[in-house]
Amino acid sequence: MATTEPMAPRPVELTDHIKSQLNAVSTATLAYQLQARGIRNFFFSGLKPTRPQRRMVGHALTLRFVPMREDLKPQLAAGFNAQRQAFEGIGPDEVLVIGARSQPDAGTLGDIFATRARSRGAAGIVTDGSLRDTPAVQAIDIPIYHRSAHAGTLGLLHLPLETNVPVACSEVLVMPGDIIVGDAEGAMVIPAALVEEVAEAAAEQELREEFILGRIEAGESTTGLYPLSAERLPEFEKWRAERG
Amino acid sequence: MATTEPMAPRPVELTDHIKSQLNAVSTATLAYQLQARGIRNFFFSGLKPTRPQRRMVGHALTLRFVPMREDLKPQLAAGFNAQRQAFEGIGPDEVLVIGARSQPDAGTLGDIFATRARSRGAAGIVTDGSLRDTPAVQAIDIPIYHRSAHAGTLGLLHLPLETNVPVACSEVLVMPGDIIVGDAEGAMVIPAALVEEVAEAAAEQELREEFILGRIEAGESTTGLYPLSAERLPEFEKWRAERG
Amino acid sequence: MATTEPMAPRPVELTDHIKSQLNAVSTATLAYQLQARGIRNFFFSGLKPTRPQRRMVGHALTLRFVPMREDLKPQLAAGFNAQRQAFEGIGPDEVLVIGARSQPDAGTLGDIFATRARSRGAAGIVTDGSLRDTPAVQAIDIPIYHRSAHAGTLGLLHLPLETNVPVACSEVLVMPGDIIVGDAEGAMVIPAALVEEVAEAAAEQELREEFILGRIEAGESTTGLYPLSAERLPEFEKWRAERG
Amino acid sequence: MATTEPMAPRPVELTDHIKSQLNAVSTATLAYQLQARGIRNFFFSGLKPTRPQRRMVGHALTLRFVPMREDLKPQLAAGFNAQRQAFEGIGPDEVLVIGARSQPDAGTLGDIFATRARSRGAAGIVTDGSLRDTPAVQAIDIPIYHRSAHAGTLGLLHLPLETNVPVACSEVLVMPGDIIVGDAEGAMVIPAALVEEVAEAAAEQELREEFILGRIEAGESTTGLYPLSAERLPEFEKWRAERG
Amino acid sequence: MATTEPMAPRPVELTDHIKSQLNAVSTATLAYQLQARGIRNFFFSGLKPTRPQRRMVGHALTLRFVPMREDLKPQLAAGFNAQRQAFEGIGPDEVLVIGARSQPDAGTLGDIFATRARSRGAAGIVTDGSLRDTPAVQAIDIPIYHRSAHAGTLGLLHLPLETNVPVACSEVLVMPGDIIVGDAEGAMVIPAALVEEVAEAAAEQELREEFILGRIEAGESTTGLYPLSAERLPEFEKWRAERG
Amino acid sequence: MATTEPMAPRPVELTDHIKSQLNAVSTATLAYQLQARGIRNFFFSGLKPTRPQRRMVGHALTLRFVPMREDLKPQLAAGFNAQRQAFEGIGPDEVLVIGARSQPDAGTLGDIFATRARSRGAAGIVTDGSLRDTPAVQAIDIPIYHRSAHAGTLGLLHLPLETNVPVACSEVLVMPGDIIVGDAEGAMVIPAALVEEVAEAAAEQELREEFILGRIEAGESTTGLYPLSAERLPEFEKWRAERG
Question: How high is the ipTM of this complex?
C-alpha cells in the first residue's frame, strides 16, 4: 500500500458508513436517486468491467488525453508525463478516470500500468477508450471499466495532457474528487456534494425494493406496490422491523 | 401462472407442434426460410440474450416508447401507463417487444418488471433499448434480449405510449401477435401468417443440415453436398429413414 | 488434413521458430513492434474471437465481398463461387480473412463452412461482418474473429467476388500471404516482409516485460523500469541469465 | 384551397395574433423559451429547408412510417394508404410531420405529393427521412424540411402506417395538433398547450435582443447587457417607447 | 479531347438515343425503374455534385482505394499508380467511380486531377470520399459527386490499388462499364445490361408524370391519377398526341 | 477595434509577410506541407464556413466546453464565465476555437456573441458544435466554421469550463496561440512552431501548382509534370522568371 498523500482532492469525506452504503446498493438505485435530484448525465454508457463481481467505490483522480499531434509528442508524451503521474500518484479510495474522447481504436492502458495501480491500492480505473493486453489485465485484481479491447498503444490516437482537471468520460463530466461507483452494470459518477444524501436515500430505496421484489416474486401485481403506495407502507414497515 | 385472457392478439394458433418445431431449429435456419419467401428484415440486430441457453417462442405483445417530452410526462408516464399495462397484462406464450428507437442510453425495464413478467408466465422480452439492474435481471429465469446495460431509468429518454400497436424494434417491424423466436444467436420475428409453413420447412432444412454437417465433419467437400444435390438426395433419404 | 497445394501465397516462410515466437507473445506486444516500425493500421478493431483461449497464426487467404446487387446474384453467388473456393481451398497455416465492409447486419459464414475450414486444417477465420449459427459455431474447434451474431445469410447485403486479392478488413489492408495473428484481445495483420524481425523483437520485448511486471508486482515504481532504463539493464540481464 | 374540415386536431386555436408573433421571431428565440419551461427536446436536428427564405407555421398533421416488411406491403402500401390520406387530407394551417426513423437512404415524398400538398394550401412539410425529386421540389412554393436527397422510393425502407398519431421525428415527439414552426435555421415543435405563452414571451425577448444587438453593434460589452441587467432596463424601456 | 482507345469496358453501346433519354429523365425516375426490376441498391447516398445544373452520363471507369499501410506506400502509391492510370486513361463517355470506403476524412482528388479529367473529355467523377481543393474544383466544368471537403491528401487514409475492377462506392456495387447517371439529386448506377430498357421505360414514365403533375397543379386529387388509372389513360393518350 | 492586450498567447509572431502568404495559399496546400512534416491530424473535418469567400488567419484563443451537469450549472455557467471571458477578451489576429466534443445537437454561440466578436476585431470563430441564430449570423461579417445549425442553447449539452487551454476541436488538438487558417474548403490548425516554414513552403508549392495547372489546362499529361520532374524544372523556372 502507498503511504503518500492522496493525489485526488477530497471535497467530501468518504466515510466507512457511506462506503458501506454505496457498496450495498446497485448503480441502478443510485441512478434513480440522482435523477430524482435533477441530474441526468452520470452513467458511463458503453463501458464494461473486467471484474463484474467486484464493487468499485472511490474519489475520481482524473487524467485527460487529447488527440495525437506528432509535433507535440516529445513535449507531452515523454518523461514523467501526465499518464505516469496518474499511475504513480493514485492511492487507496481513488478511482482513475481517463477521458479519451470515447475512441475505441487505441489502447489507453495495459497490464503494467494496471498492475502498478493495483499495487498502489487504487480502487479501480474507468477509461472511455480501449484496454490493451486485455487477457492479461483480466487476471489482475482491480476493476477496470473500458469500452473495448485494442492492441495498439496510446500513441495511435492520444497524448496524455494533464491530471486532476475536469474530464469528459463517455460524455459525462467528472470533477476531480467526485465519487465514482461501479458494479456489474457499469460505472457512474456521483457529484461529491450529493454523495451523503444520495447514499442514504439509496440505502432506503434498496430496502423498499427488496420488500417489493419479494411480493412480486410471490405473485403480486406491481400496482400499488411499485412504487410503494401509502396503503402498503405499514406492511413494509412491519417487514422492515421484523427483518431487523 | 396468470389466468386472464391473453393480451396479445392471436392471428394464428401457436400449436404445440409448431412450438416444438420452432424450439428445435436455430434462428439461422428460420432466417433462411424467411429470406426464401422474400422477407429481408426480421432479425433484431445488435441485441443479446440474458439467458443464451434458453429458447424463446411466443406471440408479440408490443409496447411503443416515444421520445421524452417533459410537458407530456404527467399524461403518459403516470398511473396505469402503457408500460405497466404491458407488464400486468402479459401472459404465457407471449413475448413483450419494446420499440425504444434503438437508444442505448437509458434503461427500458429493470428487475421488478422482469420479475413480474416471469411471474405472469411470459415467454420472454425483447427491447431494442437498454436493460437496467442487469446483474439482478441475469438471475431471473426469463430470457431478455437487449442492446446494452444502463443504470438510468426510462425517463432519461422515453415515455411509454401504447401497447398492441405495430412497433419498430431494432428497425424491424413487429405486428401484435406475430411470432417471436430467440436463441443464443439473437431474436427475430416470424410474420404470423407464415409461421406454419416456415416452421415446417425449417424442421426439414435442419434435418438436412444435420446430415450434411455429419458428412462435412467426416471430411467431405461442400460441393454437391451443401446445398444438397439431386445425386446425394437418396443417401440423405436413407440416413433419414435409418435415423427414424 | 488437406494435402493440396497451399492456396494463399507464401511471400515468406512461416518457420516453426517464427510460429513459436508468435504464439508466445501477445498481440499487444506485436502491435508495439509494428508501431515502432511506422505501421499504424494493423488491428482488426471491434472483432472478438469464438475461442479466446486459442492462439491463431497463419498466412492470409483473402476473400472479398461486395455489396449485393440483385442482377449480379446469378453471376457471382452461384456454383463454385469465391466463397466456396476459399473454404474448399484453405489449408493448414492459413487464416481466411473476409472483407465484408464491416457490416454488422448479415451473416458471412455459418457452421457448415466453419466445419469445412476446420476439417481442412485451417488455422482460423477473420471476418469483419457477422457470424451465423453462432451458438453452433462456438462449439467448433477453430478460432473465428467476427463483429457480431446475425441469423441472416450473406445475400442480405453481400455477394462473394474474389479470393487472393488485397482486402480491407475492419478498415485494415490485408495482402494475400500476410501473417495474421490472434489472441483473446483480438486479431491483427503483420506485413509478410516484417514478420521475421517483428517476431524476434516481440519475443525480446515480452521477456523484458515479464521481468518488469515481476518488479511492478513486487511494489516498484514504473519510473526507470518501464520502459527499462540503462541503469536497470544489468539487473534484467542477470534475471534473464538465471531464468535460462 | 381546400374547403374540407381540417384533418389535424386543433387542441388550441392558432389565432392571427399568435401566427404573426411566431412569424416574427426566430426558432432560436422560441427554443430559448421552451428550454426556460423545462422542455429540452423540440428541435428537428439535422433537417434543412428547401425554402430557407420562407417561414412555416401550422398544426402538426402526423404520418408514421414503419420499417418495410415485404409480406405487409399489399396491406399497408396499397390503395388509399396512410401516405395518401395525409397528402389528400392536409389543408391550410397544417404542417405534415413524417416520422421515418431518421433514415437517410430512401425518399419519403417527391414532386407530385409536394405539389398536391401545396395545392391543398398546406403550410409546410417536415420529414426526418429523405426527399425525392429534390431538384423539382426545390421549385415548388412550399417549405419542406428534410434530411437529405435520395432518388429511391419509400419502398426501399418504409411502409406508411397511420396518420394523426404521436410520432418521433428526428427523435423529437410530436403530438397531432402541436404547433410546428420553421425558419432558415430549421424546424421545431411547440407543445400546443404552451404556444400562447411561448409566442408572447418570445416576442418580448426578440424585442430585447434587438435592443441589445444594437448596443453590441455600437461596440458595447455584453456584460450587464446580455442578458439585460436591472440597471439597463430603463434604457431599454425608453428605446421601446421611442421605437413605438 | 483524347483520341486513345476507351479505357472502361463497353458491355453495351451508349447510343445517342439512350444518352438523350437518360439526359431527359431524373435520377428519381430511373430509380423507380430499377426498383421495379428488383434492384434495391443503386443510389450513391450522401454524395453531392459540384455542378448541380449539369447532367452526367457515362460508362463507369472504376478506381479502388484500400486503407493506407505505410509499408506498402512505395509499392502502391509511387510512379504510374492506379490513380494516375485512371486520370490519364479516362476519356469521353466515361465517369470515374472511386471506391474509397465512404471515408470523409481525406481528399481523394484535387484540382489538378480534376482538370486533367476534364481535359481528357471525361463525363464526370464520383467519389465516396472527400474532395480536395474544393473551392478551385467548383470552378472546373466537370460534375464531381463527393461526400465532403477535406484539405488532407489521399495518403492520410488511402492507397490507390487498381482500376477496372468491381468497386463498392457509397456501399453500392459498380462493375466496370456500368452506366453512371447524375443530376442535382445525386448520382446512381444502372447495370449495363438493363440500361436500354430502363432508359426507354423512364422516358415513358417521365411523360406520364409530366401529364400528372399538370393535373395536380391544376388542383386535382392524386387518387386515380397517380399512379395513372385505366380510366385516366385515354385522357393521357390524348394529351400526349396533342403535345406531339 | 479593441485596444486591450491580446488574450491568446503569441508563441510566434504572425508577421504581415506570413499573413499574406497564408492568405494567398489554399488550406489544401498547407495541408500538404503539414503532412510532409509528419503531421496527420490538423483539419477540422465536417465544419463549414458562414463566409466561404472570406479568408481567416489568426492565433487560436481556445474555449473548452464540458458536458452539462445540472449541479454544476450555477458554478460554471453564471457570471463572467469562460464563454463570456472568451468573447469579451478576443481581439484582432485571434480566432476563437471552441471544443464542444463535436456534438451537433446544441448551439454553441449565436448572433449576439458573434456580433461582439466581430466588434472586437476577431479574425474568426471555429466551433465543432452547432451555430444558433444561423440565419442572422450569416449576415455578420466574420467567418464562422461550424458543424450544423441548431436553435437550442448551450445548456442542452454543454457547460463552459475554461479558456486558453489545449482543446480537441473536431478531434484535432489545438494549443493556445497556434495558427488557425480557413478558406472555403474548411479550417485547420498550423502548429505555431511550424508556421513560418510551412507558409514559405506553401507559397512556393502554390506557385508550382499554378504553373502545372496551366500546362494541364493546355492539355498536357500529369506524368512528369505533377509532381514536377527534374526535366520540367527549367521550364518552370523560366515561367516563374517571366511571371515576375
Answer: 0.96
